[in-house]
Amino acid sequence: MVLDSLLPIVPTTDSTLRITGRVVNGSTSALVQPRVQIRLSTSVLNGREGIDAEIYGPASSSRVLTTIDLKTDIAPGSQSGFTFTLPFTQLALTTQGTYSLVINAVQANQTMGSIRTFLPWFPSSEKMPRAVGVVWLWPIADYPARTATNVLLNDQTPVALSNGGRLTGLIDVGREFSSTLSWMIDPSLIQSADHIGRGYQVVQDGEIVVGDRSSNASRWLNDLRAAITPSNSHAFTYADVDAVADRRNGLSADVVRAMTVAPTIATSILQSPVPGGVYWAPSGRLDQKTANVLASAGATTVVLSSATM
């Protein structure tokens, strides 16, 4: 199941619910007489915990809004689109809150695919909750495996920078959504990519040899330069340091250095202003003493695990 759109974002009593999506057959056999069934929970979800339970647990009690006959079979590798519209006045929503919306692909009364999302319903402007700001962080980072003399300890980063590699895939996907995401860049990685692009040495089978993926690294850096803008890119701490562990081991000065050099290195290599001031906690957690060290180094944004909050 693919949900292409769910509108309106903030419905009112005069609104019309409009859902568009696709049933994609990723199996090796045809979907025969497929149907799309749209279900809505019978009650509102209980806050953030209720939303989490709906995502990760069994679906809540629901009622069928509609069943759509897709008319034709769907061959393997093919897809079929659907559209559903219904005025909110006909949804019989009696309580303000967030409802669970489930869209199923059905064949012979058997669910073949499913997707869950949510439908907010706050028609009274007096009780309309404030929207929570959401940001989509796109981390561009890799394991720091480089000696002080710029010899790579393994081929992990060069391979990831090559066609079909993990880091190349991140750039390819990120470019499609560049206007809606924030590029979070590790200066250590792009410094490694810049070094690899100029010719590099790597340890293979215990021996130091000349690497052969320089052109891939140069192309990757150019693709990253073309994808980012000063408004949607940020540099986090150099080598994605674990600031808590470093501080507890007497390395607070290294934490400060990792924070302060990050935007300078990123801006120089990417040839475009890249602001810093971001710390992404590797463990998702942060103590007050470490937060004080980061703040003294100019940190203005900290990314933590939701469990921490």
Tell me what the structure shows:
This protein has a four-stranded antiparallel β-sheet with strand order 4-3-6-7. Strands 1-2-5 form a three-stranded antiparallel β-sheet, with no helix packed on it. It has a three-stranded parallel β-sheet with strand order 8-10-13. A hairpin with a 2-residue loop joins strand 11 and strand 12. It has two domains: 125 residues, Immunoglobulin-like; 167 residues, Alpha-Beta Barrel (TIM Barrel). With 309 residues, it is of the alpha/beta class. The chain is built from nine helices and 15 strands. The mean pLDDT is 93.
Defining traits:
2 domains; 3-stranded antiparallel β-sheet; globular; 15 strands; 9 helices; TIM Barrel; alpha/beta; Immunoglobulin-like; 309 residues
Quaternary organization: single chain
Uncertain runs with pLDDT below 50, 5 residues or more?
none
Report the portion of residues in β strands.
25-35%
Number of helices: 9
Into which percent range does the helicity of residues fall?
25-40%
**Mean pLDDT across every amino acid position:** 93
Task: Tally the structural domains.
Answer: 2
Biggest sheet, strands in spatial order?
4-3-6-7
Q: What name does CATH use for the topology of the largest domain?
A: TIM Barrel
Q: H/E order of the elements?
A: EEEHEEEEEEHHEHEEHEHHHEHE
The count of DSSP E runs of length 2 or more, i.e. the number of strands, is 15
**What is the approximate shape?**
globular
Rg, please? 25 Å
Cα-to-Cα separation, first versus last residue:
32 Å
